[in-house]
Structure formats: C-alpha cells, structure tokens
Amino acid sequence: MILVTGANGLAGSAVIREFARVHAPVRALVRSRTKAQALEASPTVELVEGDMLRPETLANALSGIDRVLLISSPNQQMVETQCTFIDAAKKAGVRHMVKLSGVTTSLDSPFLFSRMHAEIGRYLERSELAWTYLRPSQFMTEYLREVPTIVAERAFFLPFEDAKLTPVDLEDIAKAAFALLTTPGHEGKTYMISGPEALSMTEVAEQISLAIGKTIRYVNISPEERKRAQLAAGIPAYVVDALDVQSRLRREGNGEEVVHPETHIALSIRPTTFAEFAHRHAADFRGESGHFGGA
Question: CA–CA distance from 174 to each of 14, 134, 142, 159, 165 (Å)?
C-alpha cells in the first residue's frame, strides 16, 4: 500500500488525482478531512486524517504502508515535521520513501527552503529507509498567483529581470511520482524534472497572451516593490524574506534555467509545454474561474 502525505496541497492532490485517474489504490494523509472531501471522489482513494508532527495520530495512516511520498507545507516547521514523520514511518515498518523537494536543494543554499529540504534528505538517508528524491523546478501553477493583476492590469509584476526559468507542469510531476512509487529500481536515485524549455518572463507573458487572446505584459519591478506587495497581501515576513533570496538567486542564475529532460525520458512521460498549460488554464488567466484570486 502507498501513502501520500500533504495530500491536500497542490503537489499532493495532483498525485492523488493521478492515482485516481488510473484507478490505482492509494492512501491520502490530510490534517482535515472536511477540507479534502474532493479527494474522496475516487473509490480507489482512502482518506485518512493525521498530523505529521504528532506520531500518535498516524497509526491508521501508516498501517500496512510499504512506500510513502513525503510532502508537507513549506513552513518554519518543515524540517521538524518531516523528520518526525520519518521516525514514525520507520517504526511502522515503511520500507521506501520518495521525497519531493526541488532542483536547488542543497545544504549550503542561501534559500531557506532549499536548505530545509537538504536537511530532511540528510536525515532520511541516515534513517536506513530506502529513499528516492524527486526534485522539480518551478511549478507552472506559480503564474496563476499573478491572475489578479493579469485581469486588472493585463500585466504581471515580478523582480526577475531577464532571467530564464524552466517551469514544470504539476501533472508531469504527478506522473513521475506515480511511476517512482509503483515501479521498482528507484532506490538511492535522484530525479530532477523540469519543463521542456527555458523561458524568460517576457516569453511567459507571450504564451499567456496567446492562450487568452489578450496582450499580457511582463513588468520587471524592484525586489523592494515585490516585498511590499507580498507583505501587504499577508504573506509571513519569513516567507517574504526567503522568496526575496530566491528571486535574487534566479536573477543571478542558480541552475533553475537548466532544462532537465532526463526524468521525462526515463519514466516515459511526455513533457507538457507552458503553452499547453496556459491554454488548459485560459479561464483561470482570464479570471473566469474564480480560482487563485481571479475576478
């Protein structure tokens, strides 16, 4: 049996949908069942409540589980949360853990969450559980956060200058996670996964424009402007500071501009282009869906 933690988040729910799509059994760990009822639409999905920081709540979630996809919220407690869960999983007899992190994961990264993922990885490797890393680039869904200004001003505002990134579709990540959890031979391996092309923000704007039939502009702003906007939106200060560091690294070129086709090739997944993603989410980018703050 397979368990997906953080199953109500963006990545976790995408993986659950992939299991449901192919009618494969999976157990989904969530903190609140009432917030995750959409996951129960498939008869092959078993929804279980539990708190990764409280091992005493995880008995039902971990019972009979052989493999786990390890995801939790990127917050100040991420290291404690995932390391506590690793201990509970080992005690319950889990054999193999697939950890979702990111392409910039490193113990010496200036970016807070990249360091945290690396610390968790080091703990996982010392746990004696079999491990696999799935490390995606920037999610394409990050651009859906820009819907409010795309709708109101036909523009989005980011401090990336002319940096290029390789955004990857969550559905591609979900297919990769499914393959790593359901097929043998991935122990001790790291799978980097990106979109099929490196794009500047101007090129991202062009693809959104083509998808919705309206001209959308990319406006480069100062890091200070971005921080003020994020704080005004209620984003915690420590997250704003971390994202400011990430933006600086992206401007400098931190490896996120490198295309990684190897995981798509190894797992026989057709890579989704940003143009395909933008067309699929055209209603979101027009503000017609009511999602992501759109009008």
Answer: 6, 10, 16, 29, 20
Spatial distance between the Cα atoms of 41 and 28, rounded to a whole number of angstroms: 12
Q: What is the pLDDT of residue 295?
A: 30
Which residue has 């001209």 as its token pair? Answer: 215
Residue indicated by tokens 């949360």: 81
| Diameter over CA atoms, the chain | 55
Alpha carbon distance, N-terminus to C-terminus of the chain: 41
Q: Structure pTM?
A: 0.95
How does DSSP classify residue 69? E
pLDDT over 90 at 107, yes or no: yes
pLDDT tens column, 145-160: 999 999 999 999 999 9
DSSP 8-state class, residue 44:
T
Q: Which two tokens stand for residue 273?
A: 């282009």
pLDDT at 290: 64
* CA 212 to mean position of chain CA atoms: 25
Tell me the per-residue pLDDT of 234-249, one tens digit each, with 9 for 90 and over.
Answer: 999 999 999 999 999 9
Rounded to whole angstroms, how far apart are CA atoms 247 and 240? 10
- Report the alpha-carbon distance of residue 41 to residue 168 in Å, rounded: 26
Q: Cα(148)–Cα(199) distance, rounded to whole angstroms?
A: 22
Name which of 89, 96, 84, 136 is nearest 113 in CA terms.
136
Contact 159, 223 (CB under 8 A): yes
